[in-house]
Amino acid sequence: MPHDTTATPSPEPGIVDPRVTVRRSTLADGRELLYFDDADSTLPPERAVDARVLDPRPPVAEMRQDPLTGDWVSIAAARQNRVFLPPANLDPLAPQTPENPSELPSLYDVAVFENRSPSFGPDLAGFAADDTDAAASALAELRTVGLERRSPSIGRCEVVCFSPEHEGSFGTQTVSRARTVIEAWAHRTAALSALPGVQQVFPFENRGQEIGVTLPHPHGQIYSYPYVTPRTERLLASIDAYGPTLMADILDSERNGPRVLIDAEHWTAYVPFAARWPIEVHLVPHRHVPDLAETTAEEREELARVYLRLLRGVDALYGTPTPYIAAWHQAPVHERRDEVRLSLQLTSPRRAADRLKYLAGSEAAMGAWIGDVPPETQAEALRAAIEGVQL
């Protein structure tokens, strides 16, 4: 029987648009579920109870350290059981029906829930969330290198459903819906950053079977790591080598260069100078903000439109949907927040209408990249595609 889920009091963490309502619920095995209702939502406040009988959640995965690189690898065997390209009537991210016992009990606008088979979590660190000394000590310990080191994969993994529809992506949503998803990303960034032991929060969207997507449902994910990720560690090393203004100086240089795709009031999208992938675009705020939770209402309003234009332009480049990874790089939770600026980095292996870039030996084995398309050439093509986009 439907029940009135809790509409949480204002202000919510990370939320700046009071028209977006957050409603909390719980799935049958105890996982957290949050509904984010659009500003112009037509949904009633009542949401159904998840009445499924579910197996207990799998044990927390184990991290093992590669001593050659210092990287931590999460061994999450439960992920082997996840759904693979289901038909529409068995979509696990669609609202439940008598024939489809999915993860979402009710019709929704945007929904966020804990992953059933997470790579990180649901266990958290044993110290208090606001114990910054303990967080720093834990991070320092993980940065040391040794043989056969193990650690529990604490943290949190969440699924973000952009729509109840079976197919689509962020780029197929309305401006209003895009705005709701941005509020959800900001909310979850703020909430997850406050969890004990979380060192970095990463919202992202994988799009297309060529990327390895197993669900066509429009959705993304959020990973909350117990360490600072290798990509961000390399960024921190570059900041140490260059100076604290590195990311601001890159943006200034790109805005005055030939690879700008969109130059709006608050955001600029550009093809980076040393792009690795055939399609690679960075979208960066003009004001220094470390993560989505610290963007303003005006920045989010513009982001909804700019991001939709960018994604639809990428799709218009070849006339058919383009596979991509859209990665929101945010500052670590506990350090370098004055130096690491929020950025969206969108990459695609598509190098022609009917060709993909596969990582060869140089890239996959040695990390020595070879670009197939000059960044300036790709920027010119993307600009032309984006100019034809209508919202």
TrEMBL record:
Residues 254-340 form the Galactose-1-phosphate uridyl transferase C-terminal domain. Pathway: Carbohydrate metabolism; galactose metabolism. Keywords: Carbohydrate metabolism, Galactose metabolism, Metal-binding, Nucleotidyltransferase, Transferase, Zinc. One of its GO terms (biological process) is galactose catabolic process via UDP-galactose, Leloir pathway. Transmembrane segments: none annotated. The keyword Metal-binding applies. It holds the Pfam family GalP_UDP_transf. It is an enzyme of class 2 (transferase). It catalyses: alpha-D-galactose 1-phosphate + UDP-alpha-D-glucose = alpha-D-glucose 1-phosphate + UDP-alpha-D-galactose. Its EC number is 2.7.7.12. GO terms for cellular component: cytoplasm. The active site is at 219 (tele-ump-histidine intermediate). NCBIfam families: galT_1 (TIGR00209). This is Galactose-1-phosphate uridylyltransferase. It comes from Agromyces tardus.
